[in-house]
Amino acid sequence: MRALAVEDDPRIAKDLHAALSAAGFRVEGTGDGEDAWFLGDTEDYDLVVLDLGLPKLDGLAVLKRWRANGRSMPVLVLTARGTWQERVEGIEAGADDYLPKPFRMEELIARARALVRRTGGHAAALQEAGDLSLDTNRMGVALRGVPVQVTALEYRLLAYLMLHRDRPVPPTELLEHLYGEDDAREANALEAVIARLRRKLGPGIIGTRRGFGYFLEAA
Amino acid sequence: MRALAVEDDPRIAKDLHAALSAAGFRVEGTGDGEDAWFLGDTEDYDLVVLDLGLPKLDGLAVLKRWRANGRSMPVLVLTARGTWQERVEGIEAGADDYLPKPFRMEELIARARALVRRTGGHAAALQEAGDLSLDTNRMGVALRGVPVQVTALEYRLLAYLMLHRDRPVPPTELLEHLYGEDDAREANALEAVIARLRRKLGPGIIGTRRGFGYFLEAA
DNA sequence: CCCGAACTGTCAGCTTGCCGTCAGGTTGCC
DNA sequence: GGCAACCTGACGGCAAGCTGACAGTTCGGG
């Protein structure tokens, strides 16, 4: 996932960069309208975050030019004053979503994710829960950015927990998902997989709620 | 992929020619505006690289005449001074992309590729992953520049891995791609092809992730 | 039409490392 | 304290994958 962050305020730009990176985007940034237009027109991004208040070339103008040139990547527009007027302008210029300043980074990330998922068709390739991230495209797992080698079975278990990160997943369900419902295994097989994963990932990643099931901590 | 390079400075023209060739284009060139206009108007190119500072007939004029005549091939414009003014002029004249001098050849190639990809052309003719490169035009494979002879089946396998170089490709998918899904083969057939390829390419090219699939290392 | 060469699927035997099972421990709940 | 849920280290079976050999097929040349 490649993102372009267009923001002239260096402090916000830095935060943006950090947040988007943490969310799994490869981020490039500029605070210059001309640059932004140029980059967005020549490179392929999965997401653009665009501030409207820019020097030289206004964000709205940049956006309009992109759209006029047939560039269709999802664009999330930021604006200082969240007036209804500006919002209409943004949408008409071709923005896919809209976020008034000031905003919390969490909200921006949430919207960015939704946008990418909505437009890209395929779900975001990178899923995260706390320190854990798994790349559903290259089937890889990373802990605080450091890749961790995981077997196919372990990966499927993690992916399932990630998918249902909002609740503890009971062992029966996991067994049924990992193996067929017909292909019976002892419950202990699952516990063994969990144990091996915990050894690889360290504590604080996979939690247990006795009687309910397993879950990803800090999800 | 056929490219026309319009550039009057012989030194740059030579570099252009070399770089585009290396990128898999069949290159024709001229330094004369009238020639350029004639060629672009009568021949079919997948890409035109156009310098604006030309004798006799200015690049912008050439471009405008092409467009007025309904020629729609992608045009990458080069200019000595990357001023905003000139950019606008170039874009308005119908350029698809814009590159200010001085520039690095790598950037030009990258933009040329993006342009061709964007305008519906096929992917770049030369694809690379680490030491391995394959020429999709002549169906050739090279290792650190040294050509390696591979069979048609082996080439198709490599090409598929190259196309999906960002993820491990499971054996089932490869089997389905190499043969039809109806035309069933033993899984071992694939392993045999892999083994033969590895013998030709040496270690460190085709990797295996047990349970996930095969992939190009150093991709 | 025959011969040889190149290509490729199948087979058999091997290596590797995944993971299910077992046994014994620890934790939490009643 | 006792039971059930859960954890963990060790071990061995076995499936995934590797490789060399061989044969069937195709194709071009003579």
UniProtKB/TrEMBL annotation, chains A, B:
SUPFAM superfamilies: CheY-like. Residues 124-218 bind DNA. Transmembrane segments: none annotated. Residues 2-116 form the Response regulatory domain. Signal peptide: none annotated. Residues 124-218 form the OmpR/PhoB-type domain. The keyword DNA-binding applies. PROSITE patterns: OMPR_PHOB (PS51755), RESPONSE_REGULATORY (PS50110). InterPro entries: CheY-like_superfamily (IPR011006), OmpR/PhoB-type_DNA-bd (IPR001867), Sig_transdc_resp-reg_receiver (IPR001789), WalR-like (IPR039420), WH-like_DNA-bd_sf (IPR036388). It holds the Pfam family Trans_reg_C. CDD domains: REC_OmpR_EcPhoP-like, trans_reg_C. The modification 4-aspartylphosphate is found at D51. Keywords: DNA-binding, Phosphoprotein. This is Response regulator transcription factor. It comes from Roseinatronobacter domitianus.
